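User: For a benchmark we're assembling, each entry needs the component sequences followed by a predicted structure for the full assembly. Here are entry 17's components. Please fill in the structure.
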Amino acid sequence: MAPQQRKPHVCRNPDLIRGVGKYSRSKMYHKRGLWAIKAKNGGAFPKHEKQTVAAAPTEKPPKFYPADDVKKPLVNKRKARPTKLRASITPGTVLIILAGRFKGKRVVFLKQLTSGLLLVTGPFKINGVPLRRVNQSYVIATSTKVDISGVNVEKFDDKYFGKKVEKKKKKGEGEFFEAEKAEKNTLPQDKKDDQKSVDAALIQSIEAVPDLKSYLGARFSLKAGMKPHELVF
Amino acid sequence: MPFKRYVEIGRIALVNYGKDYGKLVVIVDVIDQNRALVDAPDMVRGQMNFKRLTLTDIKIDIKRVPNKKTLIAAMEAADVKSKWENSSWGRKLIVQKKRASLNDFDRFKVMLAKIKKAGVVRQELAKLKKETA
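Assistant: Structure for entry 17:
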C-alpha cells in the first residue's frame, strides 16, 4: 500500500455554543478511552518517572546596568517581497509606458525582477526602447500578447541595471578628469550584445503577427472622444 | 405625424434603463397607465415602467401573458432575432458594442484600414477628376 495519508483528526467534542461542548466529562472519559488505558496498566493510570532536568549553567550578574530603562523595539515579522504583479501582466504582454522619456511607447514585458520592477524591451530595433526596468504603476497592460518562448531572460536581474561602482583612483587632477569623461558615455559592448540576443527571437515572433511591428513602433496617445475609463485595453 | 408604434400585447421593446439595459423584451400585459408586464426568453417575467422601454417596430402574435414555452415558440415563429439584427437600429447597436469592445491593437488596425480606404477613395476621385477636367 502507498504511504497511508492520515485523515485530519475531527474534534471528539464539538462545540454546541462557544464554551459549551456536546459531551459531558464522564462521556468524554469514555470517548477518550481512558478506561482502556487504565485497564491495560492494571487499574491505575500509567506514570512516568520524572526526568531530571540538567542544571542550567549559573548566569553571572551583568557588569553594567543602564541608568534608564532601555526600550526593546517591537518585533517585526514582515518579509520583503516583490510588488504583487497585476493579473493582466504576463510574460509577453504588450505594455504602454505612461511616464519618462519613453512615454506612450508600446513595449514587450519580459519578467518581474526581485525588486518588483518590470523588465521590459522595445524591442530596440522597432521602437528604440532598450532592455529597461519600469515600475508597474506607470504602465497600462494591454490584452495583446507576444510569444516569448524563444527568449532567455535568466541572466537579467537588478544588479545588471545598477550604477557601476568605480574603484577609487589616486587623486591626480587635470588628466584624471578628462580620461574619466571619455569612458563614461558609451554603452559597453556586452550590453549591446545582450539586447541583440533578446530581441532576435522576439522580433521573429512579432513579425509573425500582421501589423504588430508597426503597432509596437507607434506611440499611444489619447485622441478626441476617447474616454480612458471606457476604453478596453 | 400619427403614432406608428403602439403599446400592445406582443410589442417588442428595448430596455433603456436598469439592470436589463439593452435587452429586447416582449410586452405581455399592461398593468396600469405606467407599467407593463414584460417577458423575455432569458429573464424572469416582471413589471417595468414604460419610461424604461423604447418601443420597436417588431410585433409578435401572442395571447395575454403566455407561458415561457409559448412565448419562445412565438418569438421563433416571428423570427424576432434576425429581424432585429437586420434592422438599421439593431445594426447600429451591434456596431456600437463592437467598437466599445475593441482592444488597443484592434483600434490601431482599424486606423490603418481607415487610412488605406481613404487613400484608395482619393485615388479614384483624382482619376475621375482628371477625366472630366
